[in-house]
Amino acid sequence: MSNTTLYGISNCDTVKKARKWLEAQNIDFTFVDFRKDGIDAAQVEGWVNTLGWEGLINKRSTTWKELDEATKAGLNNTSIVPVLLDSPTLIKRPLVDQNGELSVGFKTADFAERFAR
Known about the structure:
Shape: globular
Largest sheet: 4 strands, mixed
Low-confidence stretches: none
CATH class: Alpha Beta
Structural class: alpha+beta
Number of helices: 7
Distance between the termini: 11 Å
Order of helices and strands: EHEHHHHHEEH
Helix content: 40-55%
CATH architecture: 3-Layer(aba) Sandwich
Mean pLDDT: 93
CATH superfamily: Glutaredoxin
Strand order of the largest sheet: 2-1-3-4
CATH topology: Glutaredoxin
Number of strands: 4
Radius of gyration: 14 Å
């Protein structure tokens, strides 16, 4: 049985599409809204260690664009953790944890392949 957690924010269109797809496929999952439910440093550190900070960041987000250049220039796998805890909307959505395997974003074909396993 799959142990799947989908992280994101409730009002994100991409998260809505991913949730709808999982529900249509009758795939059990837990949804965590990281703005409402919160995330902790250990989770974020694990995500950064697995995906790398640049793989975790949505550089098209308004939040990213509003960060000052000095903060952006100083980011690394360690310094990004408090930034993400303070501004979780910087995280690419959805972030999916399926039995410890992480991915970000939603594309129907990718989800179909991933959940066929």
